[in-house]
Design a protein that fits this description.
Layout: H1 5-28, E1 34-41, E2 47-56, E3 63-72, E4 80-87, E5 109-114, E6 117-122, E7 127-131, E8 134-135, E9 138-144, H2 146-153
Parallel strand pairs: 6-9
Antiparallel strand pairs: 1-2, 2-3, 3-4, 4-7, 5-6, 8-9
Length: 154
């Protein structure tokens, strides 16, 4: 039994719509934009701490995440995620890598206290979802300053 002209047209139309859907899916699944990033080298130069804030957009999937990494400078290993924070918005300059987004919506700051101690401070009540306290001989302190401000405000 041979399909009639209407069936063939419907199949072509469905195939065309499927192809368009794949193209749209492929273009919309790129990397989310980084809206802020910074680095801090340890005093002895053996480590570099880096941070980036990523802003995801979309229906039901919008989020702002700030991630801190550490990496040895004398090795070719990829950086290791040591702190992950889900941030509340809005970003001052949404979806743009800009100085206005410094601190990643949570006023995050990194400081090497010593060559083996990285201190990270942040504010504005982010949700901390990952914290590594020691890696490769360095200690990592994460201090939430928003609770201190809440005490002063009372």
């Amino acid at each position: 039994m041979k399909p009639d002209a209407d069936t063939r047209a419907a199949i072509r139309c469905a195939a065309f719509l499927f192809a368009i859907g794949l193209c749209l899916l492929g273009t919309s699944c790129g990397s989310p934009p980084t809206i802020w990033k910074a680095e801090a080298r340890s005093p002895d130069g053996l480590w570099v701490a880096s941070v980036e804030t990523i802003q995801n957009g979309g229906f039901g999937s919008a989020s702002i995440d700030t991630v801190v990494y550490v990496q040895r400078t004398n090795r070719s290993e990829p950086p290791t995620e040591v702190l992950g924070l889900s941030c509340h918005g809005p970003a001052p300059r949404p979806y743009v890598l800009d100085k206005a987004n410094a601190g990643g919506t949570i006023d995050l700051m990194m400081k090497w206290v010593t060559a083996s101690h990285l201190e990270v401070t942040y504010d504005n009540h982010p949700d901390l979802y990952l914290q590594v306290v020691r890696i490769g001989g360095i200690d990592i302190s994460a201090l939430d300053l928003s609770s201190e401000k809440d005490k002063v405000a009372r």
